[in-house]
Amino acid sequence: MAVGTRGSVKGLTPQQLREAQVRMVLANTYHLLARPGPEVVEALGGLHRFMGWDGPILTDSGGYQVFSLAGLRRISDDEVEFASHIDGARIRLSPASATRVQNQLGADIIMAFDECVSLPCEPKRLRESVDRTVRWAGLSQAAHERDDQWMFGIVQGGIDKALRSDCSEQLKQLNFPGYAIGGLSVGESHEDMMATVEHTAALLPAEKPRYLMGVGTPRDLVKAIGLGIDMFDCVLPTRNGRNAFAFVRGGGMKLRNEKYKTDDRPLDEQCDCYTCRNFSRGYIRHLILVKEMTGPILVSLHNLAFYQWLMDETRKAIREDRFAEWASQWDVKEQYHQDDNFEY
Amino acid sequence: MAVGTRGSVKGLTPQQLREAQVRMVLANTYHLLARPGPEVVEALGGLHRFMGWDGPILTDSGGYQVFSLAGLRRISDDEVEFASHIDGARIRLSPASATRVQNQLGADIIMAFDECVSLPCEPKRLRESVDRTVRWAGLSQAAHERDDQWMFGIVQGGIDKALRSDCSEQLKQLNFPGYAIGGLSVGESHEDMMATVEHTAALLPAEKPRYLMGVGTPRDLVKAIGLGIDMFDCVLPTRNGRNAFAFVRGGGMKLRNEKYKTDDRPLDEQCDCYTCRNFSRGYIRHLILVKEMTGPILVSLHNLAFYQWLMDETRKAIREDRFAEWASQWDVKEQYHQDDNFEY
Predict the structure, then answer these.
(1) Which residues of B are marked as active site?
(2) Quick check: A286 pLDDT over 60?
(3) Are the C-beta atoms of A280 and A312 separated by less than 8 Å?
(4) Which of residues 46-85 of B touch A (CB under 8 A)?
(5) Which of A224, A272, B222, B313 could share a disulfide with A229, CB 3.0–4.6 Å?
(6) Beta-bridge mates of residue B187
(7) Distance CA B66, CA B133 (A)
């Protein structure tokens, strides 16, 4: 899934997303709750009509942002109050209200309200977050009122396998149509993340979608698919695109580099995306250096197309029974670099 | 012509320009001279290949920006030295070098290097600028080396009809394939501008293109067409688009206005552009308020489509012999507002 935080994949139109072969978009409940508010999205016909996107949409529960972005103050075990990251306004959110907001937004898949902790985390605190996440999953499910939306449960538990097992078992009792693995890519090592995915994915029903939230690099994705994961969302293709970093076959490309100044080749010579069919590295570098919006847009488009290509090729490798060989090509440490110095 | 100052119409791809029915693009010699430099554009295959735009392109001579943007120091009657607006680097430009740069960039139409003064202007200074512009036109023409590019002459002379006549007559001796009227929309009233256009256009050969530079509002365009003008370039559709101002049939629309919050209608109910086919006023307002790039992009797209529609309808009115009636609809003072509070 491409990430369209506030109802738009940054700088791109739905037409361009289709052009990049994007099939599904994630939007963030927390951000849309803050602005423009779910009642506005509802009045404007729901999220699909609002965004002009007729493909599938998933909304997260808002839990992750409440705990990471907002100034949080818990007021009871089942309700949180937080200060909006925009204007400090007090907003309350609970399993019931997070679900109601997602019912109003109208995505195809919505998520149970969960508690996500950053890692490393005290065992007691982690245990609490699992208990709360399980209780909240039940409350979210009970509040869910639209049968044209699927609600997925989210497994928490940090990198503690016993807690992941416990959380998975309890959530399976609720019989969700799909399950997500949350609370990863929040500070732990690649090895710890993958060990946790391997352990947890095996506990979740193989006949239902298994979704690894907020991950990751091409290496992470291919490896996680091998462990049974079916769905991902990640900001890397677009965020790195805005920051002049192109994902290409065989590595990454930092487009501010002087060496691309008069390079007439496409970003990726084997890519057939709109960007690669029409523009040179030198031109895109120029756009980025003079801070023309079109630069980040063209790189974002390419990166999304690259990720979709990667998923297509991985599906093909699975069908042709050569997944292990394919996956080993992508298991290269630090092949892809995420630069945090965003300018857009 | 849509304006693509630094080799990109801000935020839009060539595909989107085509979608908005844009036929021709202007790029600025001064900006491309500063970054990335004409040798880079040349090494990357010339401006068409560089921008990925296979339609016609016009480059201005750089004269306007040298006199308006740059810290100018004249070093001789036929050469200027100026401090780049980017890093203060000293750059020299002359009729010969401005032409050489445009030969390197490779647009379909290039412009003679001229001197543009701001209005009001002392008569002596205005006279000087006309003499210099005429001399520089000859020097530009002499330096022009590519016969696959047309070079247009530029008539200067402020709002002084005698000077405009004198300049036009002298330039006609040089037998350019087209003529531009420069030095307007630089501080004079609408009435003075139109009186000058009326006077000057009538002096220029009707069988050759007559181009009014840097103009203007829909009202200006339709009126100038009635006076014989064939070509325009203007930043209004895109600059206003970035500033949340939509040009629509019957007036303008400031999209930050609260009244559009849950307005599900398209920007213009009679428009069939991509933006109007797919998105509501409420959604676009949301994108603008949360500063998502896609907002300015969608409004820019619509505004360009609106300008192209206006030109199409004007051509149709001429063919159907009802231009005067059509033009009177557009002769409304202050119908369109340009807001200078740009955020993008």
Answers:
(1) 60, 233
(2) yes
(3) no
(4) 49-52
(5) A224
(6) none
(7) 14
B interface test, pick of A9, A290, A343 with most B CB neighbours within 10 Å = A290
Q: Tell me the CA distances in angstroms from B146 to B28, B32, B143, B178, B277, one per residue in order.
A: 19, 19, 9, 16, 43
| pLDDT at residue B335, rounded to an integer | 58
Q: Which chain A residue has its CA at the smallest distance from B283's CA?
A: A50
Structure tokens belonging to residue B230: 């064939």
Q: Is A108 a catalytic residue?
A: no
Burial class (CB in 10 A: 0-12, 13-18, 19+), A250: exposed
A283, closest residue in chain B (CA to CA): B50
Distance CA A152, CA A167 (A): 14
How many C-beta atoms surround the C-beta of residue B31 within 10 A? 20
Q: Do A36 and B278 touch (CB under 8 A)?
A: no
The mean pLDDT of chain A is: 94
Q: Do A12 and B294 touch (CB under 8 A)?
A: yes
Known active-site residue A60: yes
Tokens representing B278 are 């797919």
Strands A79-83, A71-76: pairing kind:
antiparallel
Range A163-173 average pLDDT: 98
Residue whose structure tokens are 């149709």: B316
Instruction: State how beta strands A251-254 and A245-248 pair.
Output: antiparallel
Q: Which of B256, B290, B299, B342 should one mutate to test binding to chain A, selecting the residue with the greatest count of A CBs within 10 A?
A: B290
Which range among A51-60, A85-94, A318-327 shows the weakest confidence by mean pLDDT?
A: A85-94
Contacts of A38 in chain B (CB under 8 A): none
Q: Among the listed ranges A220-234, A251-265, A326-340, B121-135, which one has the minimum average pLDDT value? A: A326-340
Q: Do A293 and B264 touch (CB under 8 A)?
A: no
Tens digits of residue pLDDT in A49-63: 999 999 999 999 998
Q: Which residues of B touch A36 (CB under 8 A)?
A: 261, 282, 286, 289-290
**Residue A82's pLDDT is what?**
85
How confident is the model at residue B89, as a pLDDT? 85
- The yes-or-no verdict on residue A137 having pLDDT over 80 is yes
Contacts of A10 in chain B (CB under 8 A): 292-294
Residues of chain A in contact with residue B289, where contact means CB-CB under 8 angstroms, are 35-36
Nearest to B295 by CA among B249, B337, B243: B243
pTM, 2 dp: 0.96
Given a contact cutoff of 8 angstroms between Cβ atoms, the answer to whether B187 and B167 are in contact is no
Cβ–Cβ gap B282/A15 under 8 Å: no
For residue A24, count other CB atoms closer than 10 A to its CB: 16
Residue B340: the pLDDT is 43
pLDDT at A294: 98
CB atoms B8 and A35 under 8 Å? no
Residues 6+ apart with CB under 8 A from A292: B6, B7, B8, B10
Residue of chain B nearest A36, judged by CA positions? B286
Give the per-residue pLDDT at A88: 83
Sites in chain B below the pLDDT cut of 70: 334-344
Does the structure show a pLDDT above 50 at A342? Answer: no
